[in-house]
Here is the input.
Amino acid sequence: MLLFFGYRDIPIEDLTIKYGKAPSKFIEVDGMNIHYRDEGTSSDSLPVVLIHGTGSSLHTFNDWTKQLKLEHRVIRMDLPAYGLTGAFPDRNYSMKNYVLFLKRFLKALGVPKCVLGGNSLGGGIAWNFAVDYPEMVDKLILINASGYPTEAKSVPLAFQIAQIPIINTLFTFITPKFIARKSLENVYADKSIVSEALVDRYFQLTLRKGNRQAFIDKLIAHKEPSPYQNITQLKQKTLVLWGDKDELIPVDAAHNFNRDLSNSTLVILENSGHVPMEENPTESLAPVISFLKSR
Here is the structure.
């Protein structure tokens, strides 16, 4: 099995050559070398900050950024545990720790206030951050965001394996590439557009030193109850954007956000799954551009 499925970590230097070229930059935050991109209009005093989800990286917003950076400053980062950033040194993957990380990251970049958007885990971080630091968030964009208790219709294979004792230990060095493909197909409505290049990116970034263990640590961490009751506190203008074919966080959650937020716009995208900004970038970006223009 090791002969066929065993993969060594890919040196960070090699991954950086492929996935961390300009406009990528690195900045030290809490002892970590954070991979990020800061593009577009540098004079924009209200940048758009985009946060990816579990198992992903800042590259998930590549297509959106190409268009958004023409009129906005757009900031993305690889969250701790994912991409080129690597693990939290203390292996603490609580929501509170992610929120504190985001605050320190924005402070390091000199960003006092922003439009904050996130997908899945990133969406959960975004609204929790807005609850704790409302003065730092002008608007929110929640894309298939985590938060409400939900029952997944289908869970990516990598998520399932990472939560199985003993098997998950093997996962840190025996990581079949087909797991990456199956997991991506799980979150796409149209499986046929999951390309080899997309699978390679997700898979290779998983092989950054520490990321496989971090992926497991994140998924087996003590499941803190989501403070979703706090969502009603949010006063920021919010776009709730959802793929109607999402089987990981079904569309009912979108209606929950729209019900509990006092100033929200709900857009349901037909024939999109859990990562609409990646699966259907043009269609999913259109309501975002309108939302950013609105006051």
Remarks:
- Residues 2-293 form a domain with the Rossmann fold fold (CATH 3.40.50.1820).
